[in-house]
Amino acid sequence: MSLPNCPKCNSEYTYQDGEQFVCPECAHEWMTGDEQLEADELVVKDANGNRLADGDTVSIIKDLKVKGSSSTLKVGTKVKNIRLVDEDHNIDCKIEGFGAMKLKSEFVKKI
Fold first, then answer.
1. Is the pLDDT of residue 18 over 50?
2. pLDDT digits over 47-85, tens only?
3. What is the pLDDT at residue 40?
4. How many Cα atoms sit within 13 Å of 110 on the Cβ side?
5. Which of 78, 54, 64, 50 is nearest to 107 (CA)?
6. How far is CA 52 from each of CA 44, 70, 99, rounded to the nearest angstrom?
7. How many of the other CB atoms lie within 10 Å of CB of 10?
8. How far apart are CA 81 and CA 103, in angstroms?
9. Contact, 95 vs 79, CB < 8 A?
């Protein structure tokens, strides 16, 4: 079995360590094909551990103060057609009556 060259420095002296490959020359570590695709995929879960996807509808599980406003998002507010992003606040959405918002997935549940 021949191991792949390092994708970073092209070294031929790579070795396998569990599920990943390691380059001893540049210390780069990477996974094989399918595992790499899964690792690169953005995984966002709601407060109950359900996996969220773009276009899902969620409900807010806790009153949330809106920064820069005296308004509060109330428990049970439905948020339709969410978009997942790879940031601190990992949900972009538009909430009726509030406009564009960024939410953390830990404060929502999938409907």
1. yes
2. 999 999 999 999 999 999 988 888 899 999 999 999 999
3. 53
4. 12
5. 64
6. 6, 29, 21
7. 10
8. 13
9. yes
Sign of the Cα pseudo-torsion (49, 51, 54, 56, in order): negative
Per-residue pLDDT, 37: 45
| Cβ–Cβ under 8 Å, residues 87 and 111 | no
Spatial strand order in the sheet of 20-22: 15-17, 20-22, 29-31
- Reading the block at residue 111, the tokens are 């409907």
The 3 state secondary structure assigned to the chain is CCCCCCCCCCCCCCEEECCEEECCCCCCEEECHHHHHHHHCCCEECCCCCEECCCCCEEECCCEECCCCCCEECCCCEECCCEECCCCCCEEEEECCCEEEEECHHHEEEC
